[in-house]
Amino acid sequence: MSDIVFTRESGWIPNVIREDGELKLTLGAGADSNHEPRTFTFSIGDAHLAVIREDLARHLLLWSAVLPLCDAAGTGDGLDENAAAALLDPILLSAPADVDALFRRIRWDKGRLIAHGADIGLLERGQVCAAMRAATETSDNGRAQEYHAARRRAGRGVVLGPLDAAILRFTGQYLHGATIPGRTPDAVDPDLLPEVMRVIATAEGACAGMRIGLDPRRGKRATDKSDWDRMETTVDAAVRRAHPGLVDDAVRTVSFLMCSEATDRSRSTPLEAAGEGTDSDSDEGARRSPLSFTDDKGVEKKWLPDGPRTATAEFWEFVGDRSAGDNDVFTIEDEKRGEGIQLHFYADSIARVTTEREGEGGSDPEYRVEYSLVDGIRGYRTLVSAFVRGGCAALDRHGSWTADPAELERARRRRDGG
User: Fold this and answer.
1) d(CA 58, CA 132)
2) pLDDT at residue 287, as a whole number
3) How is 224-270 classified by DSSP, letter by letter?
4) Confidence at residue 11, expressed as pLDDT on a 0 to 100 scale
5) pLDDT at position 307
6) Quick check: 97 and 126 in contact, CB under 8 A?
7) How far is CA 130 from CA 21, 57, 61, 64, 124, in A?
């Protein structure tokens, strides 16, 4: 059974307990194999307790030095109690100069001290005791996160100016570059916000009218990478031209913001409203025959002319629902006309199949199969829409068709520079 002897305002700072009559320091750190928090304890003496009670700085320094030992314990090993006990006298009972010297030799958690108000400059110079004069019981984890973010950038040779930092704060990417960007003007110094908004306005003007379409080949919510790259390149060039003093991190976060917002608009807009699923330049009523959609797994979906949605919208939704790494061949068949197309997403190619002679007297029908390479999802959309409008004949002006598979492979090698 244990009783709490001493605790501080922050529940994370190690507590002192009495267990079976013995004083121990207890702290939570890390997690076990089930992701449950781990608790570590080790024995201390009355003299150590007296310092812990009266000296917040020494208490925090001890915590900072013990945390790496907890990390070393991993998910299942016990704390090296001898190593932890060996830290007690040097940190709690030694002169400040000796404590500073110790921290130059051991591993310690600098971020924990920064979160509790340590002077970063003094920490960097190895003056840990002096750095802790401003320490507080309450923590500011954001301060430690900003420190680590600055260190990561410094490791890449990046130094932010005031406007660079303000732009990263505006997009929410100051701490983590992988964070999906947004617009957080309240995070920016009001004096810098007008400059930030001028940069954003430059980006918005550069990509006005551009959009990032959906790419159902990669799933229902996936977007067209070529559209993304096109918008990113356009925004990058415009921002660098208008604001040449910005570092790459600031420019990239602005283009990331523009592309992310365009992606969100595509995902929240119905296919027909976005133009993703419309049979453009056509009279939808002109298609009188049903279509059959199939995938590489044998799943089939029928489209009927009197349905509420266009054939292309229905087809691309079918692809988005069914497409996968092992399911990347899709077919549209018009049984009434005796023709169809087969889309080979794995090879950026397409086949069109027309019935030249119906089977008679038990004989098999004869088909003509022609192939063409396809330029990304835009090319596939064009071909699908053309087929829906006018069948295989409407594909003549889209692509270079060949009945020879070997010629298709030669064309592929030429395209790929092989």
Assistant:
1) 8
2) 63
3) -HHHHHHHHHHHHHHHHHH-TT--HHHHHHHHHHHHHHHHHHHHHS-
4) 73
5) 84
6) no
7) 35, 9, 12, 15, 11
402 pairs with which residues across the strands?
A: 371
DSSP 396: T
Task: Please say whether the beta carbons of 365 and 359 come within 8 A.
Answer: yes
- DSSP assignment of 143-176 equals HHHHHHHHHHHHHTT----HHHHHHHHHHT-SS-
* Token pair belonging to 377: 């999802």
Judged against a pLDDT cut of 50, whether residue 281 lies above it is answered with no
Q: How far is CA 87 from CA 44, 56, 61, 80, in A?
A: 10, 16, 10, 11
Task: Give the DSSP H or E segment for 334.
Answer: strand 329-334
Contact 278, 313 (CB under 8 A): yes
SS3 state at 34: coil
Provide the residue count of the chain: 418
Write the pLDDT tens digit of every residue in 89-130.
999 999 999 999 999 999 999 999 999 999 999 999 999 999
C-alpha neighbours within 13 Å on the C-beta side of residue 20: 2
CA torsion angle for 43, 45, 46, 49 (degrees, to 10)?
Answer: -60
What is each CA distance from 315 to 330, 343, 403, in whole angstroms?
A: 9, 12, 26
For 355, counting Cβ atoms within 10 Å of its Cβ (0-12 exposed, 13-18 middle, 19+ buried), the class is middle
Q: Which residue has the tokens 């307790």?
A: 49
Q: Which helix H or strand E contains 24, and what residues bound it?
A: strand 22-31
Q: Write down the residue that tokens 């299942």 correspond to.
A: 76
Burial class (CB in 10 A: 0-12, 13-18, 19+), 6: middle
Q: Give the residue-averaged pLDDT of 48-55.
A: 96
| 3 state SS of 225 | helix
Residues 6+ apart with CB under 8 A from 294: 300, 301, 330, 331, 333
Among the listed residues 15, 27, 22, 70, the one whose alpha carbon sits nearest the alpha carbon of residue 43: 22
State which H helix or E strand residue 84 sits in: helix 81-88
Q: Name residue, tokens 């988005």.
A: 320
Residue 156 tokens, joined: 């890449």
3-state secondary structure of 259: helix
